[in-house]
Design a protein that fits this description.
Largest sheet: 7 strands, mixed
Helix content: 25-40%
Shape: globular
Number of helices: 10
Radius of gyration: 18 Å
Strand content: 15-25%
Low-confidence stretches: none
Distance between the termini: 41 Å
Strand order of the largest sheet: 3-2-1-4-5-9-8
Length: about 250
């Protein structure tokens, strides 16, 4: 489902946001919720040593095979680990922690998860995280006439994954930009930058992205707008980069 023009653009937006703040020297990076290793491989190709950590054994196996296939077995280590504890890792072990795919939204206790990330990061280390955006979910409730549920959701940010099929649902925390900033600042981080992904409603207009020329134009428009504070909340996801205070 992620092999579409929209998700291609989404990943490019992420990379453009984060590429300028990647460590300049070869560094050890923890890819949390690394899944099939898409980002671990990309970070390794950028010259870093990456630990791809995921709760799923199957994901870890796929990521390991992908790293080997790309000749990066010496740069990518794949392990099973839970963001909720990160017990496999020592204090101040990594220069950067990378959490794409919204794992911070899916853990039972995001506060504890951020505390654990801070523990494994070196002073001055960067934490990058993508999360589900609270205000972007409003239409989901209104389209289903769930006004009472919407009231509760806007107060707590807690709901199930917004899938129509019951077997695909699981608990999720949705964040506002202010929620995300406070969560990190209270755990000893300083927010460096935050973007929305995507602030343009491109999932509803994905057909436009099938034309390479239009893809490029919309990509450039997205990059020009996705830091605008007034647009952040309406994006489906938020992405933050924060530095651990020394």
């Amino acid at each position: 489902m992620y092999d579409t023009p929209y998700w291609d653009l989404y990943r490019r937006v992420s990379w453009e946001h984060l590429k300028p703040i990647l460590p300049r020297e070869r560094s050890r990076i923890l890819d949390i919720g690394g899944g099939t290793g898409i980002w671990a491989v990309k970070l390794a190709k950028a010259g870093h040593d990456v630990v791809c950590a995921d709760l799923s054994h199957k994901m870890v196996d796929v990521a390991r095979a992908k790293a080997e296939e790309d000749g990066l077995a010496d740069r990518v280590t794949c392990v099973r680990s839970d963001l909720q504890d990160l017990k496999e890792f020592g204090e101040a072990e990594f220069a950067m922690a990378w959490a794409q795919g919204d794992p911070l939204s899916y853990v039972p206790d995001p506060v504890l998860a951020v505390k654990n990330v801070a523990r494994v990061l070196k002073p001055g280390g960067l934490f990058v995280a993508s999360v589900d955006s609270r205000f972007a979910a409003i239409d989901h409730f209104l389209e289903r006439g769930r006004v009472e549920d919407l009231e509760k959701f806007l107060k707590t940010g807690k709901d199930e994954w917004l899938a129509d099929r019951a077997e695909e649902r699981f608990p999720v925390t949705f964040f506002s930009p202010d929620d995300l900033r406070k969560l990190l600042e209270r755990r000893g981080f300083e927010v460096v930058s935050m973007i929305g992904k995507t602030v343009l409603p491109l999932r509803r207009h994905e057909k436009l992205l099938e034309d390479p020329k239009e893809f490029r134009r919309l990509f450039e428009l997205e990059l020009s707008l996705n830091r605008e504070p007034a647009l952040l909340g309406g994006a489906a996801h938020l992405e933050v980069a924060a530095r651990k205070k020394t």
